[in-house]
Amino acid sequence: MDIRVESLHKQFSGFAALHGIDLSIRSGELIALLGPSGSGKTTLLRALAGLVPIDGGRILFGERDAATLTLRERRVGFVFQHYALFKHLDVFENVAFGLRSRPRRERPAAAEIAARVDALLRRVQLGGLAGRLPDQLSGGQRQRVALARAMAIDPTVLLLDEPFGALDAKVRVELRRWLRQIHDDTGYTTVFVTHDQEEALELADRVVVLNQGRIEQVGTPDEVYRQPVSSFVFDFIGRGAQIAGQARAGQFLVDGRPVYALRSTIGDGPALLSVRPHHFEIAAPEHGLRGQVRQQRQLAGRITLDVQLEAGAQVVEVDLDALQSGLAPAVGARIGLQPVAGTVFRAAD
Amino acid sequence: MSADPALAEPAWLRRLLIALVVVAMGLLVALPLAVVIVESLAQGWQAYVAAIAEAETLAAIRLTLLVAAITVPLNAVFGIAAAWALTRYEFRGKRLLLALIDLPFAISPVVAGLVFVLLFGAQGWFGPWLAERDLQVIFALPGIVLATVFITFPFVARELIPLMAAQGRDEEEAAASLGAGGWTLFWRVTVPNIRWALLYGVLLCNARAMGEFGAVSVVSGHIRGLTNTLPLQVEILHNEFSFAAAFAVASLLTVLALLTLVLKAWLEARHGDALARSGRH
Amino acid sequence: MSTAVAIADPPVPAPAVRWRDPLPGFGLTLGWTLTWLGLIVLLPLAALVVRASDLGGDGWAAILASQRVQRALWLSFGSALLAATVATVVGALVAWVLVRYRFPGRRLLDAMVDLPFALPTAVAGIALTALYSGQGWIGRHLEPLGIQVAQAPLGIVLALVFIGLPFTVRTVQPLLETTTRELEEAAATLGASRPTILRRVVLPPLLPALLTGFSLAFARGVGEYGSVIFIAGNIPFVSEIAPLLIVIKLEEFDYAGATGVAVLMLAISFVLLLAISGLQKWVGK
User: Fold this and answer.
1) Which residues of C touch B212 (CB under 8 A)?
2) Could you tell me the pTM of the whole model?
3) Hey, what CATH topology would domain C48-284 get?
């Protein structure tokens, strides 16, 4: 089902949590709501679920205003950050809860409930654990129970609040791939909240970047990574340096020297050049940005240099492929850094 | 190997402190317990049984059980309602409401009795109205129940509120999002999560309801065989110098207290994680 | 830094339909809470206040001038404060020994702490009397030494220490259980001695809890009736506590006098408890 959010507003005792959110979610999409804490992403998710009141705007489920729907009618499959499993019920009963809670006329027969729960548990690879209590499961297993429980009501949309937040690093990566697989198999429209850009970029069809209650950018992972629309998005989405300078006549100048040819037109004036660490090339000291190598670190297939620029004494990170290690300048060397790709933003005054 | 002197008291001091505490607790707590048992049997088993089988004592037992049977469910329902309202929603005046619920703890039992006399006594606000209709509250069962409800008012609520606040709304929201209606989510999600704390609160509420003395003493009128609860019966017998009988009746209440303590300790040991860790008492 | 230009929010269209909380029962439960609170607690206390204001200037003057009332209030508050102090010191010691030391019978001792709370006060009253009266198990050994417990203020303090002990132990104990040994170890590695560690590392975080326990024991002690009246002997001007005076005035059908003493008690308690909580905030800083 398509979901549309129109100029959504939400206040929390005085401060605005969401100002004027507009967002369209297409049926079957996998969407990430990405932002730092306090950006409003969880509030947006809970508003979609109907768990918090909204102060303005509306949410449409298909053609219907969600405000007219009860929680039961909305049928969202919500996976809570800390899973909210019913502690006193075993895995089977947790998953069966939604089916058993239906009004008598709509409730499936016991045998059908059992069949559906079993199928779901097999799908989330918990076939043998139906009789366990939540306390007897690992974090990753609990997460999968929560997901199965949410899917049991055949939801119009799956909403996941920081689904991998409470798990350790290795399990996170496994579950991430697995969630994508489940999504592709079932085709449920899915929205998840995360503060981890890597998670959002790897998993989602589209990423919604939120900051201070506003949407900064909506786009595919590739778009938000390669074409950030604001310096905030650039900074939040990945590592990189933002270098202050001037835009003038199609060139980006630092201390009066051109270091980068602008690819889009922005007006002349103070500007910021944003460059990812692997978008620098090492050049002779007289080219590009002048600096001195301060430190060299090696990390699995990558060499990272800390280069202190002459301009503003700023330290920028430069990634080199480990295969190029022979080319890496020594610590203390004076070099030039030539940006090969970057984005220029107007600087605020 | 003994610990570093900076990290532990020397052994002699440790032993001294333990001895001090054992002696203090012995004098202050264990001896009163012992004295009840010894004094109640001072005139032998037969006197003990006779004291308890006395008609007035039996009437007092019945009244005490009746009062608790009315009071405890009322305050349990109140406690659940208050905890639900206070922990599941945001509204103004919450802190004030919390403080007001605890208010009866700060009020002398005698004053608790007094306020009901002022309302329902012969010279009270509703006294004449009640007299016209031949209804009696003070010096009768309703007065005793009211005073007991007042005294035990916060017991269940204050066990449930910290626990339910710590548990948060997540599980109920999950149940609601799965389509559960109000009663379903209350009975299938909330009740299983709070049952041990509820039992704990009920246990303490019951112990106090059966043992309350000051407030009940003011409103009961000490009518023998009619408005005397067990604690009042203890007082009457003691004032008549029937010490052995007084202690025999007191021993019943002591058994109640010990039973309460055993159950309480069992709940804490077995279901401690399902109780709120909020300064027990 | 970047071009995040502040854009004024457009006017907000209000949602068409009012939001319903997914958890039902707010009206019902809050309504029931307020009704029950009003009927059982607030209405009766309002009656007390209204009655007290009926007393008028002369009535109040008579109560305030009464030596017997003054003496009873003085005794009640004095012995409650003293008893709460003793209970706090003993309670802290008991909590320390129970949490930090291991010895046979520790669990039994731990369970015994709650007895004064669970034991009906009338039972506590006659038991203490049987122990400390002139013919009692302990009293008969104290009397020859010139120490009179029963029929004297000392007996009142003793009963109130008994009543207050569970409150002080149980507020300090959980805190002691959770404070990590790490802080003490850190202080020890920095060269602090045991007394210094106790005074500067262990004690300060306990102070607010000690004060809480003190105020609980005090609040309970001021109004305590059952456990006190048997051992106190209730001699006017010597061992007659304020709650007993209320009962006596009620038995004489002096409702106004009873109300006056009750309101005075509540007012003084309130001021003292407020002062303690102020002290607690100050200590907690």
Assistant:
1) 120
2) 0.84
3) MetI-like fold (1.10.3720)
